[in-house]
Amino acid sequence: MLYYLFQFLDERYNFPGAGVFQFISFRALGAVATSLIIGAVFGRRIIDKLRQLQIGESIRDLGLEGQMQKRGTPTMGGFIILAALLIPALLFAKLSNVYVVLALVSTVWTGMIGFLDDYIKVFKKNKEGLQGKFKVVGQIGLGMIVGLTLYFNDYVKIRVYAPRLLSTSNVPDVYTDIKSTLTTVPFVKNNEFDYSSLLFGLLPDSYTWIVYVLVCIFIITAVSNGANITDGIDGLAAGTSIIIALTIAVLAYLSGNKVFSQYLNIMYIPNAGELVIFCAAFVGACVGFLWYNSYPAQVFMGDTGSLMLGGVIAVLALAIRKELLIPSMCGIFLAENISVIIQVSYFKYTKQKYGEGRRIFLMAPLHHHFQKKGYHEAKIVTRFWIVGIILAVLTLATLKLR
């Protein structure tokens, strides 16, 4: 909103300083500062309101050290993240940008799914919350919206340059903005993969949209649930999401900048740079929330926050065509997901074969395994963050390591 206001003031009245709102870097700084203020300052009021409404966490006794001391801690703190993310994004981003609109819709959509889950747990006293099938239906719905928009929207394009002019400095670039299902592949020379190749020549390319939508559904569901599973100890999901969002912000800036994308020889996506403002608000919101969620947590984000974090991260990665970097970028979420799959699968297999279920981990997901081994949760969180930073560096290194 502020972008359009100051654009009007600059063009109509030549208002001093109004032109600075044209710069992504300035608006990103404004977004992160605003989100930090909302999260850190108004977060306390939201926590007090949650306490007043007696919205406390119901803790199952899993035999973890210090676990029962958290009983009654306010939950649904994801509202802090939602407010600190949506308000700055609406203020500083271009609301006509299709990528920003998708990110905003994804935030509200997944936030509502998480809210319904928390509402059933807290107010209906049903510890199971929203049934898994309804969560999946909601995630599939979002995947369809995102996939169809990115495939069919006329403003979603990539820029292709004429190769013969790339090295000629005194001749203007010759390029074409085209619709494409190309995406980025790490560690390979041409760094690109076309989803149409998944048809294997059995169907016409016009059916590629079906493949692409299915990929979007799978990625959004997997990453959203991965973040949800990771939200098990104080500060883990929020801190990990900050690292991932910073990585996506760098990738979005490079992919949306003509000079840097040509220098790095990566896909140039016109208008994708606007997502840097959204990522900045995302980071600020998570940092502001982490002020209250770090050990010992004064509030839990609940599914209102965790499902939203993962869903939005997936959509951002899809928007800048870096979804195939998710295994490295979101490696913590992936490891948590896989640990649960392995644990459940092995337990069922051994129960069927030996009549008694056996476990590989002391407890799943993975962070609970380390808690059972006697590590303090603050140490586990810190080390997971360190691993997350290493994975982020590896993800950025893929821009040149091919």
From TrEMBL:
Its cofactor is Mg(2+). It is a multi-pass membrane protein. The keyword Cell cycle applies. Keywords: Cell cycle, Cell division, Cell membrane, Cell shape, Cell wall biogenesis/degradation, Magnesium, Membrane, Metal-binding, Peptidoglycan synthesis, Transferase, Transmembrane, Transmembrane helix. One of its GO terms (molecular function) is phospho-N-acetylmuramoyl-pentapeptide-transferase activity. Mg(2+) binds at residues 228, 303. InterPro entries: Glycosyl_transferase_4, PNAcMuramoyl-5peptid_Trfase, PNAcMuramoyl-5peptid_Trfase_CS. Its EC number is 2.7.8.13. GO terms for cellular component: plasma membrane. One of its GO terms (biological process) is cell division. PROSITE patterns: MRAY_2. It is found in: Cell membrane; Membrane. It catalyses: UDP-N-acetyl-alpha-D-muramoyl-L-alanyl-gamma-D-glutamyl-meso-2,6-diaminopimeloyl-D-alanyl-D-alanine + di-trans,octa-cis-undecaprenyl phosphate = di-trans,octa-cis-undecaprenyl diphospho-N-acetyl-alpha-D-muramoyl-L-alanyl-D-glutamyl-meso-2,6-diaminopimeloyl-D-alanyl-D-alanine + UMP. It is an enzyme of class 2 (transferase). Its main location: membrane. Pathway: Cell wall biogenesis; peptidoglycan biosynthesis. Belongs to the glycosyltransferase 4 family. MraY subfamily. NCBIfam families: mraY. Catalyzes the initial step of the lipid cycle reactions in the biosynthesis of the cell wall peptidoglycan: transfers peptidoglycan precursor phospho-MurNAc-pentapeptide from UDP-MurNAc-pentapeptide onto the lipid carrier undecaprenyl phosphate, yielding undecaprenyl-pyrophosphoryl-MurNAc-pentapeptide, known as lipid I. This is Phospho-N-acetylmuramoyl-pentapeptide-transferase. The gene is mraY.
